[in-house]
Design goal:
about 110 residues, Trna Endonuclease, Chain: A, domain 1, six-stranded mixed sheet
Length: about 110
């Protein structure tokens, strides 16, 4: 929870420093499916998952996959921010290490 809180605060800080209000939301359904953040981009919602682990695990993508399937065409680009150190793309998900949050322009 501490890592998630730090990442969210960094994203909010960037948004507020740009003179904009928050467009970040948490989502969970009655069955327990959840996405750490949804970024409202007007025409679509981009899911963002935050994991502190240094090794990418397939389970990290469960919430993102569920959301994209549920949202269909309104699902925006998906992101995973994790505690590791390698940036990559997998199954239409951009994976960012924690220290590159600002270097990759996550549109918030």
């Amino acid at each position: 929870a501490l890592f998630e809180t730090w990442v969210i605060s960094e994203l909010l800080k960037a948004r507020y420093n740009a003179g904009e209000t928050s467009n970040l939301y948490f989502w969970r359904d009655r069955s327990g499916h959840e996405v750490d953040l949804l970024i409202d981009q007007g025409t679509h919602l981009s899911p963002l998952e935050i994991k502190s682990g240094q090794t990418i695990n397939r389970d990290y993508f469960k919430g993102l996959d569920f959301w994209r399937k549920l949202a269909g065409k309104t699902a925006g680009k998906a992101w995973l921010i994790y505690g590791g150190d390698i940036q990559q793309t997998r199954t239409d998900v951009t994976i960012l290490p924690w220290f590159e949050i600002d270097s990759e322009q996550i549109v918030i």
